[in-house]
Amino acid sequence: MKAFFEGIQYLFVNILFAPLDFLRRLELVTWFGANTINWIFMIICACAIVYWIKQLRIFDDAGTENQDTTAHSFLK
Predict the structure, then answer these.
(1) The total number of structural domains that make up the chain
(2) InterPro entries this protein is in (predicted)?
(3) pLDDT digits (tens, 9 = 90+) for 57-73
């Protein structure tokens, strides 16, 4: 049983967390390089928000959006 948990430890510590260890060492060299993953996620979220707002505007301009307060049964 001990070997099973040591195997899980080896998997996470030496294999799955290796990229995060690299980013931790990279932070001492360049802050922007170490936060590349954060920048990528912020760009993806910004693009998703812009797309969402454009879709909301399309449905609002077409008049197909039901903004009646009784649109949902829990608001009655």
Answers:
(1) 1
(2) DUF6341 (IPR045922)
(3) 998 888 787 666 666 66
